[in-house]
């Protein structure tokens, strides 16, 4: 089972570069596989962001950006986008992609057998709009400013204290701004102490669901605009995949 330092490893780097930049044929070499789960980091933006709500010169923030694909996708709609992740290795590679537009890597076929390839940022995206920095989504630097869109993709169930991260959102998001929060609700004690889980347990004999807790915590400051079920596929090797369905919620700052 993965632990928080997984995101500094070369294995995680390879998996996430493929997850973010791999072609459909590289990610899923089986015609009978779940193709609707491909391209998740791009779909978090294309299926969830509401561009009509953005002002001119919008600012966006991607918390837990990993190797940056959603951050670049936000730059299709926003003139300034900051990607933040606690993994120094991921941020190093995301910065390389921002500067060079591509990054060679290898993905696993079986055991030690790998296939070399290159991650490429789509050419039509203006990379000058994007910056990456290391940081803790639970304790952001105070001079980050405010944003018209904040994305938290598959982040909250990997944090020691997700409630603390959610508590930062009202001051980060401008009135009318949007928060896109996706999570497969995979609560695990090696990432999040049981007392901090947002869902997935019983209280007073009743099941507590992540969506209900998000509503209770965010509703004073945000209106829930939409919920979606977003499938995604992470390839471990040619014959092993994680197929998940994230709960995606879109919130508008009151
Ligand atoms: C499951 S991955 C999701 C990455 C990306 N958003 C995506 O959808 O592919 C979780 C990410 O959160 C990052 N992360 C974990 N704890 C963090 C923290 N306290 N602050 C910022 N990022 C964190 C990890 O390094 C990893 O990149």
Strand arrangement within the widest β-sheet reads: 5-2-1-6-7-11-10
Taking all Cα atoms into account, the compactness measure Rg is 18 Å
Low-confidence parts: none
Structural class: alpha/beta
Strand content: 25-35%
Spatial shape = globular
What is the total tally of β strands? 11
Overall pLDDT score: 98
| Biggest sheet statistics | 7 strands, mixed
What percent of the residues sit in helical stretches (DSSP H or I)? Answer: 10-25%
Helix tally equals: 7
Distance between the termini: 39 Å
Small molecules in complex: S-adenosylmethionine
Q: In sequence order, what are the helices and strands, one letter per element?
A: HHHEHEHEEEEHEEEHEE
Structural description of this entry:
This protein has seven helices and eleven strands. With 254 residues, it is α/β, with parallel strands linked by helices. Strands 5-2-1-6-7-11-10 form a seven-stranded mixed sheet. The longest helix is centred in the middle third of the chain and has 13 residues, at 88-100. The termini are far apart. 39% of the residues are buried. The model has no long low-confidence stretch (mean pLDDT 98). Bound molecules: S-adenosylmethionine (SAM). S-adenosylmethionine binds at residues 7, 19, 41, 64-66, 84-87, 90, 136-138, 153-155, 158-159.
Characteristics of this structure?
two-stranded antiparallel sheet, single chain, 7-stranded mixed beta sheet, alpha/beta, 11 strands, 254 residues, 7 helices
Structural topology:
Layout: H1 10-21, H2 24-27, H3 40-46, E1 59-63, H4 69-74, E2 80-85, H5 88-100, E3 102-110, E4 113-120, E5 130-134, E6 147-153, H6 162-172, E7 173-183, E8 201-203, E9 206-208, H7 210-218, E10 222-237, E11 240-253
Parallel strand pairs: 1-2, 1-6, 2-5, 6-7
Antiparallel strand pairs: 3-4, 7-11, 8-9, 10-11
The protein binds S-adenosylmethionine (SAM).
